[in-house]
Write a structure and sequence with these properties.
single chain; three-stranded antiparallel β-sheet; 16 helices
Length: 340
C-alpha cells in the first residue's frame, strides 16, 4: 500500500503488467513469436525483469524488452538471447529433457537439480569476482545482476562482466537460434533464406564448439601445471617440464566446411565431458564475434520490426485470457494494473 501512495515513484513504476498480459504483447510484436521456443523465451524475459518474483513488471521493463527484440541493434538483440540462456534463467526442466523421459526423469531428478545448482553456483562465483560482492546470494541476486547487464550499455569492459555460458546451456542457445527462423511444423528449411540461415548457424555453432573445446584443454593444462608446481617445488615456470607447444592447442580452432546439425553437435558435447579442473564455456564476446563472421545472420538480426500497429490495436481492443469466465460472459477484462 505504501508503494501505491509514494509520490516519489516515477510514472512508469505505477503501470504494471502480469505475465499473461506481457505474453499477449510478445505474441503481437515479437519477431520470435512463431518460433517453437517462443513461450520459453517470453517466460524467461519476464523472469529477468522480475527478480523479486512479485509476478509483475513495470512499463519501463516492457519498453526495454520490446526495443531489444524489435529494434535494429544487433548487439542488444544477441545480448538478450545470450542472457536468456544463462544458468539461473533457464529452468532445469528445459535442459536435456529430450533424453530424460518417464522413470528416468524420476530416478535422476535429484542429481539433475543438483547439477543445475552447481552451474548457478559457478555464475554466482563469477559475479562475485567481477563485482566484488561477497554477500551475493543465489538465484534472486543472479537474476538481478543479469537484468543489470541487460539494460546497461555494453562496452568492451562490460562484456567481460557477463558470465560465461556452460556447454549444455550453449547447446540450448544453439537450438534456439535454429528455432527462431524455422516454422514449428517444419523439420527442415523450406526457403532459400532459411537454408542460408540454417547453414550459417551450423557454421557458427561448430566454431563455438571448437573454441570451447580449446578453452577446456588450455584450462586443463593450466590446472595440471598448477598441480605440478605445488607437488614439485623445485620446478618453476621456466623449466622444460612446463614448456607448452603454442602451435598445438590454439591452432585447432578452424572453421569447418561441413555444417553440423544441433543433434550431432549435442552428441559431440556429451562425449567430451569436463574433466576435473577443466571448464568448457564460451563468453558473450566469443558468441558475438562468431555471429559477426556470418553476413546472413548479421542481416537477419539487424532487421527491425514495426510495433506501432499491433500496439495500437492492443491498446484499443486488448486481448483476453481464453479461459477467463468474464470473457465468456461478455464482460471486458483489464490487461494491466496501474496505481494512481
Amino acid at each position: 500500500m505504501q508503494e501505491r501512495l509514494d509520490p516519489n515513484l516515477p510514472y512508469y513504476a505505477l503501470y504494471k503488467l502480469d505475465y499473461d498480459t506481457f505474453h499477449q504483447i510478445f505474441e503481437l510484436c515479437s519477431p520470435w513469436r512463431k518460433a517453437e521456443v517462443a513461450d520459453q523465451l517470453s517466460l524467461r524475459m519476464f523472469k529477468i525483469m522480475d527478480p523479486t518474483r512479485n509476478e509483475f513488471i513495470n512499463f519501463k521493463d516492457v519498453v526495454i524488452l520490446l526495443s531489444m527484440m524489435c529494434g535494429e541493434d544487433l548487439q542488444k538483440k544477441l545480448k538478450l538471447l545470450y542472457c536468456l540462456h544463462l544458468p539461473g534463467v533457464v529452468h532445469p526442466s528445459e535442459l536435456e529433457q529430450e533424453e530424460r523421459e518417464g522413470a528416468e526423469v524420476a530416478s535422476d531428478a535429484t542429481d539433475y537439480f543438483t547439477e543445475d545448482d552447481l552451474e548457478i553456483g559457478k555464475t554466482v562465483q563469477f559475479i562475485r569476482e567481477q563485482s566484488q560482492e561477497a554477500n551475493l546470494g543465489q538465484e534472486e541476486d543472479v537474476i538481478s545482476s543479469i537484468q543489470d547487464w541487460l539494460v546497461r550499455q555494453c562496452s568492451k569492459l562490460e562484456m567481460k562482466k557477463i558470465p560465461p555460458l556452460p556447454q549444455k546451456y550453449f547447446v540450448l542457445l544453439w537450438k534456439t537460434l535454429y528455432a527462431l527462423f524455422m516454422e514449428p511444423d517444419l523439420s527442415a528449411p523450406s526457403t532459400e533464406e532459411q537454408q542460408k540461415l540454417y547453414h550459417s548457424v551450423s557454421v557458427v555453432g561448430t566454431l563455438l564448439l571448437q573454441i570451447g573445446e580449446v578453452g577446456e584443454r588450455l584450462d586443463r593444462k593450466s590446472a595440471e601445471r598448477k598441480l605440478l608446481l605445488e607437488s614439485e617445488p623445485h620446478i618453476t615456470e621456466g623449466t622444460p617440464e612446463l614448456a607448452e607447444d603454442a602451435s598445438g592447442e590454439a591452432a585447432t580452432v578452424k572453421e569447418s566446411g561441413a555444417a553440423s546439425s544441433p543433434a550431432t553437435s549435442s552428441e559431440a558435447v556429451d562425449e567430451n565431458k569436463n574433466s576435473a579442473g577443466a571448464v568448457w564455456n564460451i563468453s558473450f564476446e566469443q558468441f558475438l564475434a562468431s555471429i559477426l563472421t556470418e553476413s546472413v545472420l548479421v542481416d537477419h538480426f539487424s532487421k527491425g520490426v514495426d510495433i506501432q500497429a499491433p500496439l495500437t490495436e492492443f491498446s484499443c481492443h486488448g486481448w483476453r485470457k481464453a479461459a477467463d469466465p468474464l470473457q465468456l460472459a461478455g464482460h471486458p477484462v483489464a490487461n494491466s494494473v496501474f496505481y494512481v
